[in-house]
């Protein structure tokens, strides 16, 4: 793991180093011979999930955001989660959500606005607790704003909780804050691919490439051609033709990745975090032209900076606020357009220069940014695998959708022996209009990326064929599950 940026609270996990700012990528000894599954960056703390599902945290712990009372300068295991196989994390300003492999959510840290979803009266929770109101719902993604939280379920339901000062929960004007997860009913029936949260704004991305945003919009971070806050989800029409496949958010800005590997940014630009060679705010999505000609496959937003990864060169680019070294350029200067992060980067399957030390060269696996810190999970050139590609969603983080492989799995069980989890999977898929709509999008046609309504793009021929396969007489249990 390489890390750079603000180290004043120990959030880089480098131990007791003298510097408060790390200006260029530095190896973290703690992660030698360890594989990292996910990283969550809060304002002053960081959470690491290893491949074995264990969780380590470091940084500021004034509000219980580390989930333990151990050393703050180097990563320490969150023992309270020892029995859990954690697969994903997300951090707010001072709170953390962790998702396990069963779809259950754990929360800890600051709870001033109900952002932990625990319905408690304590100001902060120092030991991870299960959000019991979500216990019967299989969650696949979590996202934290500064003081609010979002979750996406397998059934394509979006839940929100926490502060609603700017409408970031999407529940309307009347709700000031929400102490337990609440379903956003206005989004029912839509097949979602991702949830994302900024400082006080929120987004959902559909399987068809449509984007809905809500919350704070003072700098145009919702991309809706104005600066008015939104209290309910609004469709971002200007990106409908761009085939958006991934979204990330900073404090007051937003970045979107297209299927072709292009990057659009909008919102606050005062530090250059939009990458348009200016410090202007943008109320409409604008393409980062200096990245054109390169195919970007990963993007990440910090508080007021943005990172992008280009696999053809193996390089990471960054732009925006640099005062805490978070750009990794070797200086504290702000950058208004993409600038290469320092390092001996090599593309996957790239050729190493002769007579070099392999330890000094890095093949990026995945980039992470948040707060004023950045990280890169890497491998050495002699045993590197392909980097992650955010344009290819992880199936384990997606909603239920019917496809040929899933149908064959269902039909592979003999009559009378369908396991409970398979029956629940079938029931969940066919009782969710969002999942059904997502199952039968006309994915062979790029036009499906431009659908923004509930039922357009549905391939009903495929729907009928698969439905009739499922209700064959020799599978009575499945037949009972799907009679809707």
UniProtKB/TrEMBL annotation:
Which top-rank group of organisms is this from?
A: Eukaryota
Do you know which InterPro entries this protein is assigned to? RCC1-like_dom, RCC1/BLIP-II, Reg_chr_condens, Signaling_Regulatory_Domain
What are the RCC repeat spans here?
A: 1-52, 53-102, 103-155, 156-208, 209-260, 261-312, 314-380
Task: List the source organism.
Answer: Trichechus manatus latirostris
- What protein name does the entry list? Probable E3 ubiquitin-protein ligase HERC4 isoform X8
Pfam families attached to this UniProt entry:
WD40_RLD (PF25390)
Sorted alphabetically, the keyword list is:
Repeat
Where does the RCC1-like domain start and stop, copy by copy?
Answer: 2-342
């Amino acid at each position: 793991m390489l890390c750079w940026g603000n180290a004043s609270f120990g959030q880089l996990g480098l131990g007791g180093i003298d510097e408060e700012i790390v200006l260029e990528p530095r190896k973290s000894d703690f992660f030698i011979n360890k594989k990292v599954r996910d990283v969550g960056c809060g304002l002053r703390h960081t959470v690491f999930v290893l491949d074995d599902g264990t969780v380590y945290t470091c940084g500021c712990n004034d509000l219980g955001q580390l989930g333990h009372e151990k050393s703050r300068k180097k990563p320490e295991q969150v023992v309270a989660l020892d029995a859990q196989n954690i697969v994903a994390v997300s951090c707010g300003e001072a709170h953390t959500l962790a998702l396990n492999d069963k779809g259950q959510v754990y929360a800890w840290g600051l709870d001033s606005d109900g952002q932990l979803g625990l319905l408690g009266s304590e100001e902060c929770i120092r030991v991870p607790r299960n959000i019991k109101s979500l216990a019967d719902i299989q969650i696949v993604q979590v996202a934290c704003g500064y003081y609010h939280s979002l979750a996406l379920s397998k059934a394509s339901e979006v839940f929100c909780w926490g502060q609603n000062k700017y409408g970031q929960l999407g529940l309307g004007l009347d709700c000031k804050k929400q102490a337990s997860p609440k379903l956003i009913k206005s989004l029912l029936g839509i097949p979602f691919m991702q949830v994302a949260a900024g400082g006080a704004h929120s987004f959902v991305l559909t399987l068809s490439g449509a984007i809905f945003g809500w919350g704070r919009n003072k700098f145009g971070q919702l991309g809706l051609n104005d600066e008015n806050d939104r209290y309910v989800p609004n469709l971002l029409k200007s990106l409908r033709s761009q085939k958006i496949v991934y979204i990330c958010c900073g404090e007051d800005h937003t970045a979107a990745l297209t299927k072709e590997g292009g990057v659009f940014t909008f919102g606050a630009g005062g530090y250059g975090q939009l990458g348009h060679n200016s410090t202007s705010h943008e109320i409409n999505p604008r393409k980062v032209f200096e990245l054109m000609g390169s195919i970007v496959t990963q993007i990440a937003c910090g508080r007021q900076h943005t990172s992008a990864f280009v696999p053809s060169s193996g390089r990471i680019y960054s732009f925006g606020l640099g005062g805490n070294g978070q750009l990794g350029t070797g200086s504290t200067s702000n950058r208004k357009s993409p600038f290469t992060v320092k390092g001996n980067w090599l593309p996957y399957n790239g050729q190493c220069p002769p007579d070099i030390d392999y330890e000094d060269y890095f093949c990026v696996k995945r980039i992470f940014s948040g707060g004023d810190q950045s990280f890169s999970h890497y491998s050495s050139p002699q045993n590197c695998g392909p980097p992650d590609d955010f344009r290819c969603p992880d199936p384990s983080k997606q909603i239920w959708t019917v496809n040929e492989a899933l149908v064959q799995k269902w039909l592979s069980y003999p009559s009378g022996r369908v396991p409970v989890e398979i029956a629940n999977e079938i029931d969940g898929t066919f009782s969710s209009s969002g999942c059904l709509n997502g199952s039968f999008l006309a994915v062979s046609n790029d036009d499906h990326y431009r659908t923004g309504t509930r039922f357009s793009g549905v391939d009903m021929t495929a729907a009928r064929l698969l439905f009739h396969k499922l209700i064959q007489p020799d599978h009575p249990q499945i037949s009972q599950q799907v009679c809707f």
